[in-house]
Amino acid sequence: MLDSRRNGLLRCAPNSGEPFLSATQRRSIRWFLGLVIGALFVWLSLRKFPIGDAVSHALHLVGANLIGGDLHGLSPQAIAENPGLLPKDAWMVHLPLILPYLAILVVIHFIRVWRWDPLLRRIGHNVPFRVLNESGGISFMAVFLMPVRLGEFVRPALLKRQAGVRMSTSMALVILERIIDGLVVTAFLFILLWLLPEQNEVAYTRIYTGTVISLLVFGGGLITIVLAYLFQDAAHRLLQATLGRISTNLTRRVSGILERFYGGLACIPDVRTMVLFCGVTVLYWGINGLGYYAMLRAFHMDLGLAAGYAMMAAVVIGMMIPNPPGNVGTFWFFLLLPLSLYGDIATTQHIMLALFVWFVQMGQMTIFGLYFLGRAQLTLRDLDVDAEPEPPAPVTDRLVTTDA
User: Fold this and answer.
1) pLDDT per residue over 276-292, tens digit each?
2) How deeply is 201 buried, as exposed, middle or buried, from its count of CB atoms within 10 A (0-12, 13-18, 19+)?
């Protein structure tokens, strides 16, 4: 069990010497950047939508359908019986179909938690599932709620405290996980491009361009970390020839970080481990897409399974942009982007779909995260990523330094 009072705040990444900016300044810059990005995408998402009509009219519960917005004189019963009558300024959701989405979110939570197990075992850490579940639940909430993906540091910090896994080692796994996620989702989207309608040429071009950029980013990332692992000696010689001429102590610190980072990448040569991890990742995203499809059906949009997976893939690729707190704005914008291929999305029904998907997903992660925080006797303030640094590792025998 974690004891924040005795051990101090969770910490994020090693550094040396006094930082150029204080922790408060760094935190303020990150939150400011996140808020600016969020404000931009909130404007982009809502500028064409009659959002005022969604919340300024009475709600009607007709059977299992919740109806809101401006009904333009139509009776809620008539709309419930014939969803095709739904005005542009109104919205309707079939509430029972939200339950499958919630169930899918719970299932993929456990899949997402467990898929680290083979990676950690391969690098010599037999971490109990309870610890994986607790650290995963808290970090998933932190990644979603904190700006510019600062929450990515939370799981490594928790695993260090609970299982003795070095921060740099875990961060290598985080990077590997994100790259594999990105490549799998990009592959999904490349396949979907053959199935999606093309009548909106502008939207189709945007999605195609984003898919190509995603492939270049994540494919390049995979090549980079594989080369970094294969040519470790060359990297250390380069470090010694450059930074080693400036500061011996700093070179030792950076070398220690690299050693622990390489330790996290030790799973790459193990074909069985990587095949298992990639297979679980495909399963994770395959089930995830079904949840988006369920929400389309909940909002009476019979667009087919491909549309649900396209929404999921667009959200994931959109997350390459530094996210605002709570993914406000960016989540809605990228989720709705592929639906523009099917026709006009400037309706209250579409923006309410985006808001419901976002709210349910955020709610599930937040409830799980707060539960695990309480069980670990932590508070939100304990997830400070600008806290005390991790002590450096001993100097490795491959690093030969001379006094500068």
Assistant:
1) 999 999 999 999 999 99
2) exposed
Q: Count the Cβ atoms, other than its own, within 10 Å of residue 358.
A: 20
Task: Map residue 184 onto helix, strand or coil.
Answer: helix
386 vs 404: CA distance, rounded Å: 30
Secondary structure (3-state) at 301: coil
Lowest-confidence range among 103-117, 128-142, 185-199, 270-284? 185-199
Identify each DSSP E strand in 90-161 by its residue range.
90-94
Which tokens in the block code for residue 83? 């969803």
Model pLDDT for residues 158-194, shown as the tens digit of each residue:
998 889 888 888 888 998 899 999 999 999 999 998 8
Q: Strands 65-69, 90-94: parallel, antiparallel or unpaired by DSSP?
A: antiparallel
Distance CA 160, CA 255 (A): 19
Residues 6+ positions from 198 with CB-CB distance below 8 Å: 204, 341
For residue 94, the cross-strand partners are 65
**354 with 42: CB under 8 angstroms?**
no
Query: What is the rounded CA–CA span in Å between residue 321 and residue 323?
Result: 6
Residues paired with 385 in a beta bridge: none
Long-range contact set of residues 14-18: C-beta below 8 Å, sequence gap at least 24? 14/167, 14/168, 14/253, 14/256, 14/257, 14/389, 14/390, 14/391, 14/392, 15/389, 16/249, 16/250, 16/253, 16/392, 17/250
pTM: 0.81
- Specify whether the CB–CB gap between 265 and 171 falls below 8 A: no
Q: From CA 229, how far away is CA 217, in angstroms rounded?
A: 18
Helix (H) or strand (E) holding 217: helix 201-230
Torsion of CA 103, 104, 107, 108, to 10 degrees: -150
What is the DSSP-derived secondary structure letter of residue 324? P
Domain ranges of the chain: 4-383
Give the burial class of 333: count Cβ atoms within 10 A of its Cβ; 0-12 exposed, 13-18 middle, 19 or more buried: buried
Cα distance between residue 383 and residue 142, in whole Å: 8
Is residue 297 helix, strand or coil? helix
